[in-house]
Write a structure and sequence with these properties.
Number of domains: 2
Helix content: 25-40%
Distance between the termini: 21 Å
CATH topology of the largest domain: Rossmann fold
CATH superfamily of the largest domain: Toll/interleukin-1 receptor homology (TIR) domain
Strand order of the largest sheet: 2-1-3-4-5
CATH architecture of the largest domain: 3-Layer(aba) Sandwich
Number of strands: 5
Length: 177
C-alpha cells in the first residue's frame, strides 16, 4: 500500500476460522477504511492459487498477524499453523508480530497467554479502538485525503488528538465522505 504523506502505512494478515468469517469481513473492512493494508484471504486468493504459497507469502510480507481467537479458531490446525509461523517470525525479528483479538470466551493458546489482546466480546468499537492503538499513525480512513481532513481543523486540533479521541475524529471524517 502506498503511504500518504505524513501517515505511516502498516499491513496486517488476518488469521481466523471460516466460522468467524462475518466478524472478520467487518474487521477487515474497518481496518482498510482506516488506512491499513489488509491481507484477507477472501480478497487475496484467486482460483488456481496455491493456498500454502499465497498464505505463506501473506504472513511473511505483512507487518503483523492478527489472530482472531474464538472457540473454533483455537481448535483449527490451519489457524495454529499460521500462528506458529508468525510466532517464529516474532522470535527471529525480536519485535511484536502477533496481535491477538478475542471475539468470544475460549481457551487461549499457551504461547499467547502473556500477550495483551483486543477484546471484542462486549463492544466491537472498544475492541477496534484497542487494536488501532497499535497503529497510532493510521489516523485517516482510506480515501480521505489530507485536504479533506484539514477542513476539520475548525473543530479539532489534529496535533492534540489523543489515542482515546481517534474514534471521534475518524467518525467525523467518515461523515465527510
Amino acid at each position: 500500500m502506498v503511504g500518504k504523506v505524513g501517515v505511516s502505512t502498516n499491513s496486517v494478515f488476518i488469521s481466523y476460522s471460516n466460522k468467524d468469517r462475518s466478524f472478520v469481513e467487518r474487521l477487515a473492512a474497518d481496518l482498510r477504511n482506516r488506512g491499513l493494508c489488509v491481507w484477507f484471504d477472501q480478497w487475496e486468493l484467486k482460483v488456481g492459487d496455491s493456498l500454502i504459497d499465497k498464505i505463506n507469502a501473506g504472513i511473511t510480507s505483512q507487518d503483523y498477524l492478527i489472530i482472531v481467537l474464538s472457540k473454533t479458531s483455537v481448535r483449527s490446525q490451519w489457524v495454529m499453523r499460521e500462528l506458529n509461523a508468525a510466532l517464529m517470525r516474532e522470535l527471529k525479528e525480536r519485535r511484536v508480530v502477533v496481535l491477538p483479538i478475542l471475539i468470544e470466551d475460549c481457551d487461549i493458546p499457551p504461547l499467547l497467554s502473556d500477550k495483551v489482546y483486543a477484546d471484542f466480546r462486549g463492544d466491537y468499537s472498544l475492541g477496534l479502538n484497542r487494536l488501532l492503538g497499535r497503529f497510532p499513525g493510521q489516523l485517516f480512513p482510506s480515501g480521505v485525503n489530507m485536504q479533506t481532513s484539514r477542513s476539520l481543523s475548525d473543530n479539532v486540533s489534529m496535533a492534540n488528538v489523543s489515542r482515546a479521541n481517534i474514534s471521534d475524529v475518524t467518525g467525523r471524517l467518515d461523515e465527510l465522505k
